[in-house]
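Possible regression after last week's pipeline update?

I re-ran a chain I had predicted before the update to compare outputs. Posting the input and the new output here so someone can diff against the archived version. Not blocking, just want to make sure nothing changed silently.
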Amino acid sequence: MTNAWVSEAVRRIERDFQRSADTHLFPIDLPALAGVQIYLKDESTHPTGSLKHRLARSLFLYGLCNGWIGEGTTIIESSSGSTAVSEAYFARLLGLPFIAVMPRSTSAAKVAQIAFYGGRSHFVERGDQVYDEAARLARECGGHYMDQFTYAERATDWRGNNNIAESIFQQMRAEPHPVPRWIVVGAGTGGTSATIGRYLRYQGHDTQLCVVDPEHSVFLDHWQDRSRTGLTSDQPSRIEGIGRPRVEPSFVPGVIDRMLRVPDAASFAALRVLEQRVGKRFGGSTGTDFCGALQLACELRARGEAGSIVTLACDGGERYLDTYYSDAWLSTQGHDIGPWLDRLNAACDSGSWYGN
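New output (post-update):
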């Protein structure tokens, strides 16, 4: 490995960053929640279409500066799709081979996007198999296993340096309630919640962090009882990008103020509600985030309190047209979103989580 190659690789990533604008933060118009404003930070506008673009950039810089990535290094990642898409982008930027180890259920659109950036997809049957298989491939080819689930929380500078938390607070400066009462995120690696939670404490902001967890994920159970570190689930999360069958090393429960379990049917219904009220389609994790933000907003209103809540749109809905946005797919998977459509619309229109 030569210092000259690494230095040029870092400069390429930094130039790419300078060519990319920050993502938009916009309010969701819900008049019934008078005094409480929900904001959506649209991470789908990154070059690779998701929040994971930030993580992939950080992981590459971390690997380069640690001496793990050099000229010709094959990059291997375990992923549910979005991180692999973003890492394939940066691998191509640096002229490096890339292999994504993913569950076979990963959306076809994500697989196609990985191929577009020159990456190769390697499939396993279950989500809990990605870790060992990625490590095995790295050993066999002498490549570097990025291991987002271990390094996400340490690769990102949580003190600032244009991380997502700093971006949120800069964009909120001129709003009626510039310091949010809550920031709501899901957890996949745990890196985003760790970055935001640490930033809030470092900056001394009076903002609480809520992490929403889908069905079959073990994060909430571990957060409730920290002694249960070896928790596992034999069923994968059906919300791509968040929820894990094990407690990931990057998950930091101590920075989280509250966690909420969101049923999968509620997440899928929330996508339809957002499309009607925002005019844009998002991925499943955005539906999970919105459910949590709406519940917290209704709770603030019920107490007669005002304030702002910020949540994330993690990726766009174009990747999920044949799944989350397909009535046939929902029916095949046994998801009845009708009751949740009614409940979420009622909450939006009345300002009450219980529809009163």
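Follow-up from reviewer: compared with the archived run. The two ends are 65 Å apart (CA to CA). Marking as no regression found.
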